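Service request form, structural biology core

Requester: graduate student, group of Dr. S.
Request type: structure prediction, single chain
Budget code: on file
Notes: please return the result as structure tokens.

Sequence provided:
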Amino acid sequence: MISIGEMSRRTSVKVPTIRYYEQMGLISAPERSEGNQRRYSQSELQRLSFIKHARDLGLTIDAIRELIELSDRPNEPCAFADEIAAQHLGSVQKKIKQLKKLEKELKRIVSSCDGNTIENCYVIQALANHELCTSEH
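Core staff response, request fulfilled:
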């Protein structure tokens, strides 16, 4: 059995976050020692590692919950898991496209500034007047 502190150290998930995942039902409520300390199984450590990796990839709690439910049915087709990942990929690609637009506009704004005084600073002017932007972002 593993303490909550050890779970935290092994997964780099903070203790309050582990408790939050318990409250959300993503990991099972642990057994308690005689001293009322949480004691987790190896399978809960693996589950927490799964959740951490999914969160690092930007998956939502709801998506992770669905994937956990799917993982509890190992003999079913994986089409729904693929669909969850594909939807998230689409969302990430959309964000990247938006970020590239932001990058282009910010580069333009920065390169348009002569850097003399704030009074004549193009960065300040562009932020104050959205019409100076060349695209929606």
